[in-house]
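Sharing a chain and its predicted structure for anyone who wants a worked example. Both blocks are below, sequence first, tokens second.
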Amino acid sequence: MSGDKPWLDRSHDIEALDALVSLYGEPGEASIMKECDHVHPLYAPYIEAAPFAALATFGAKGLDVSPRGDGPGFVQIADPRHLLLPDRRGNKRVDSLRNVLHDPRVALLFLIPGVPEALRVNGRARISTAPALLERCAHEGILPSSALVIEVALVFFQCARAVKRAGLWDAAVQIPRERLPSPGLILQTLSAAAIDGAAYDGELQERQRRTMY
């Protein structure tokens, strides 16, 4: 037995589908009927209004999820079966893009400030640098380096329980940034002081402003 570390106790692990179904039961009719294999006209407004999405990918090193954000509608609906996701300027790790080269399966979770429901999209992606596509995804004349063309396989809304439990859009639960370790402190610590944390933090906001796109 694991004693005071119950997370190490494997005797109650769920390892078979029938045991999982026995524990949770079957999904209700609404949970199944909300699914589409394309961007339905009633789902399109969610994508068009969303300024943020989490992108999940799978690569040689395992799973990854990455934040993506811009003005509402930054993920474009090319047609009911294709989405366009520009790759804006970042840290050049390109983890998500490396993963897409390994395995094209992707998932998106769209969030809209003030709206408790989320939208989930599953599909397959490819990386494109087609000039006309990049022009279409430009921001004030600045082109993305590439764009993901996502072939939609499944779309459905996620109920509001998680967002409501989190109080995600409730300003009263927001915490001051200084309560958490700063990026500079994290980098200075993990780099054994090879990076000057105070200098990094001092330059961060202006550097991000200059390099947003």
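Comments welcome. The first strand starts at residue 52 and ends at 59.
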